[in-house]
Design goal:
By secondary structure, chain A is an all-beta fold. Helices cover about 0% and strands about 55% of the residues of chain A. In chain A, strands 2, 4, 5, 6, 9, 10 and 11 form a seven-stranded mixed sheet that branches. Chain A is globular. Helices cover about 0% and strands about 55% of the residues of chain B. In chain B, β10 (about 85-95) and β11 form a beta hairpin. The chains are: A mainly beta (about 110), B mainly beta (about 110). The interface of A and B includes residues 41, 55, 106 and 107 of A.
Amino acid sequence: DAGVTQSPTHLIKTRGQQVTLRCSPKSGHDTVSWYQQALGQGPQFIFQYYEEEERQRGNFPDRFSGHQFPNYSSELNVNALLLGDSALYLCASSLVTSQETQYFGPGTRLLVL
Amino acid sequence: AQSVAQPEDQVNVAEGNPLTVKCTYSVSGNPYLFWYVQYPNRGLQFLLKYITGDNLVKGSYGFEAEFNKSQTSFHLKKPSALVSDSALYFCAVRDRGRDDKIIFGKGTRLHILP
């Protein structure tokens, strides 16, 4: 049973560029949440997707957008990258009917130069 | 608004001694509470959760946590620390009466000294 997978593991971009991060949820899960973890901080909630729609959103600008596909996998897109977007981006999956436990992927480390 | 506080940035414990990592929370309704552990360059691993019922929750790797409603605390404990327990620990809360967002604390780095 595969857990949550994310790709790529590492990414280097320059300011102003755009980036797409990918996540495949744990088998059987239908909900995907994205978090940003800056260095030395706890994860900050970006948004959550279920049934291919954004259910909730944290305090992140519109430069952060996402998508969920029919197979429940998800993408996180960030436009007009800023230096401050450098962080570990974590994907977590869960069942909408049992959301108390989220299972996290290993993350994508994004460095913006 | 919901929030989580982990008052200690770092906790040092000698191997074999009991350990406690503190967490307090604030929600408007009843909480779901979680502990996660993060090893270097890794994602978060689920340790344990409190949903309802017994205030003492047992989790993975011999960890446990006690829910104290009057003190709004959910401290993580282990009777005998191992060097391999050294990692970054995050407490998290979800307000079950409101939305599905899970709010994390800033984390506590646990150092187990051999």
